[in-house]
Amino acid sequence: MKKKLLDLVSRFYFIIIMFFLYAPILVMIVLSFNNSRSRVVWGGFTLQWYKTLFSNRQIREAFFFTIGLALLSAVIALLIGTAAAFGIHAMRRRGYAIMMGVTNIPLLNADIVTGIALMLWFIRFLPLGSGSVLIAHVTFNIPYVILALLPKIEQMNMAIYEASRDLGATAVRGFFTMILPQLTGGLLSGFFMAVTMSMDDFMITYFTRGAGVNTLSTMIYGEIRKGIKPEMYALSTVIFAAVFLILICVNFWPSNRKAEKRREGII
Amino acid sequence: MDRNRKQRQLLALPYVLWSIAFTVIPLLVIIRYAVTDKDGHFSVSNLLAFSTPVNAKAFLISLEIALICTVICVLLAYPLVMVVRRLRISRMTFMLFFLIMPMWMNFILRMLALQMILSNNGILNMIVTGLGFQPLALANTKAAVIIGVVYDYLPFMMLPIFNTISDIGEDVLEAASDLGASPLSVFFRVILPMSLPGLKSGITIVFVPSMTSFVIADILGGGKIQLIGNIIEQEFTRSTNWNLGSGLSAALMLFMLVGMSFTIKDDILPSHPVKDEEGEKKEAPGGEGISRRAVL
User: Fold this and answer.
1) S-S: B138 plus which of A234, A264, B59, B118, CB 3.0-4.6 Å?
2) What is the rounded CA–CA span in Å between residue B291 and residue A18?
3) Are A145 and A223 in contact (CB under 8 A)?
4) Residue A236: helix, strand or coil by DSSP?
5) Which of A96, A104, A125 to probe the B interface (max B CBs under 10 A)?
6) Which residues are B282's β-sheet partners?
7) pLDDT in tens, B183-218
8) Which residues in chain B have their CB less than 8 angstroms from residue A83's CB?
9) Is the CB of A200 less than 8 angstroms away from the CB of B30?
10) CATH 1.10.472.80 for the B14-295 domain, yes or no
11) Distance CA A236, CA A191 (A)
12) C-alpha angle A196/A201/A207, rounded to 5°?
């Protein structure tokens, strides 16, 4: 009896938190079907914002810039971060401590300070534009990759790599066939975190972008006072739904279940 | 062996260079701006700008909001983590999915949606009055800003705590209750102490940034609540006193460093992977890399 009650309370609490986290998203999805330019008036159901999604050139440019920026910065962060994770893993106490400290700075520092510091530095040698935004995003993405990979590298089984070398595999081949597969989970979650953080960032982009460069976030921020274009709601809903579906497929696809269990705790 | 190790350390070189160029130097640049005046002469007036009435007021409100938000995040996170454990949906995949997914709806749109929910004739008040209560006047108040900040930072509190708690084996908890501990003392004497590294990471990630979220204060506070982030932003975008803005930022960095000093220590000193003189790794019992993972 007591157990049942606790289960009930547990479910209820979980649903409350879920509601808190997802209610604003639900509101935005509903608004994307609203046949009115106002946020507070419901003008009936429509699909027109989805049809005119890309007719606005600015929205189109901001969308492709945001996606391109997220993917490119995540790939660069993945390359630098993976190498760094192996290097840091091989370091001794002091080097290790220093590197972990530096890695934590972008995570713990307020975004506004990171953004302003980069901006003050960039203006000395680099015109603010898409390049400076890319560098900024890579900078705050690398720590996510390193922190996702390090524990996996620590758990890694090095013996099978050494065995493959003894059996005549080259270092490169040994790395790609024995080490990399063991790190797939860490690499994926690092990459995914990096893409997510880049897509969701507003502040650092806001301070490091140049005139005329807009991500969806900075564009929406600029529109707050004159009113948000309803196409934005539609576009955000499409992005959200697409990622949601992809993740559902990747994580909960039946054939993945077994592999999932084997690498417990990995995204 | 030793040459091998040296070679492997070299892999970190691109990152070392990158972080010097784009993490360390920018922080030095901001400090340089902070300790000089407009003509480039040394001056501490920007650092002391904290004490002017406007800035001090913003700073105190920021501190208050950050403190309240951090406490609320902790109070919300622990029960949720326990609930998730209890309902046996404790797969990291699901938790990550559940907490990270909202970030794929644009941050500013989510805040605007929250504004609509909390506004005086918004959705929340429709529910509240529907249930027969007095409508809440949340719009443009400190409470609204607090709700927004909690909304934004809750995942960053939950993930590290969840990470450390999901590492605790069921057998440990069973042993505790077999030895006569009540559920409450299992929580306070086993789970809570073991989750401390996650809690510390969560607090450090949430506290300082939540003092600066000027967008949340703008949208949900209706311009009436000025956080220290709003003041810094205005110094850079409107009044263009970069030295003053940098001074305030440098003071915030001080907070971050204080926070870091106690989370990083936890990473490096014993109890987690300990590296001895030869640099070989030894596992300390029970705590393999917990806190480093906990930051994520």
Assistant:
1) B118
2) 26
3) no
4) helix
5) A104
6) B274
7) 888 888 888 888 888 898 888 888 888 888 889 998
8) 11-12, 14-15
9) no
10) no
11) 21
12) 155
Amino acid at B239: S
Higher per-residue pLDDT: A50 or B70: B70
d(Cα A243, Cα A245) in Å, to the nearest integer? 5
> B91: which residues sit within 8 A by CB, 6+ positions away?
A260, A264, A265
Hey, where are the domains in chain B? 14-295
CA distances from A11 to A14, A26, A225, B154, B282 (A): 5, 20, 40, 19, 41
Query: Does the beta-carbon distance from A18 to B24 stay under 8 Å?
Result: no
Is there a contact between A108 and B256 (Cβ–Cβ < 8 Å)? yes
In this prediction, residues A99-103 reach a mean pLDDT of 89
* Helix, strand, coil percentages for chain B (3-state, nearest 5): 75, 0, 25
Please list the residues that pair with B274 across neighbouring strands: B282
d(CA A254, CA A83): 33
pLDDT band at B240 (very low <50, low <70, confident <90, very high): confident
| C-alpha to C-alpha distance for B93 and B109, rounded to whole angstroms | 26
Distance from CA of A49 to the nearest CA of B (A): 16
The per-residue pLDDT for A139 is: 96
CA atoms of A192 and A190, how far apart (whole Å): 5
Q: What tokens were used for B287?
A: 């705590």
Cβ neighbours of A76 in B, within 8 Å: none
Which H/E stretch holds residue B281?
strand B281-282
- Rounded to the nearest angstrom, the minimum Cα separation between B53 and chain A is 22
* Nearest-CA distance A43 → chain B (Å): 16
CB contact under 8 A, A220 and B106: yes
> Cβ separation of B29 and A121 shorter than 8 Å?
yes
Q: How far apart, in whole angstroms, are the C-alpha atoms of residue B24 and residue A101?
A: 11
Per-residue pLDDT at B293:
40
Q: How far off is chain B from A251, nearest CA to CA, in Å? A: 7
Q: Rg of chain B over CA atoms, in angstroms?
A: 23
Interface with B, mutate which of A27, A111, A243 (most B CBs under 10 A)? A27
Residue that the structure tokens 């749109």 belong to: B109
Query: In which element (H, E) is residue A122 found?
Result: helix A111-122
Instruction: Give the per-residue pLDDT at B226.
Output: 87
Q: Which of the four pLDDT bands, split at 50, 70 and 90, describes residue A51?
A: confident
Q: Is B265 on the interface with A (CB under 8 A)?
A: no
Find the length of chain A: 267
State how far residue B170 is from chain A, nearest Cα, in angstroms.
16
Residue B287's identity, in one-letter code, is G
In this prediction, residue B130 carries a pLDDT of: 85
C-alpha torsion sign, points A13, A18, A21, A27: negative
Q: Give yes or no for a contact between B295 and A147, defined as CB atoms under 8 angstroms apart.
A: yes
B109, B272, B275: best to mutate for the A interface, most A CBs within 10 A: B109
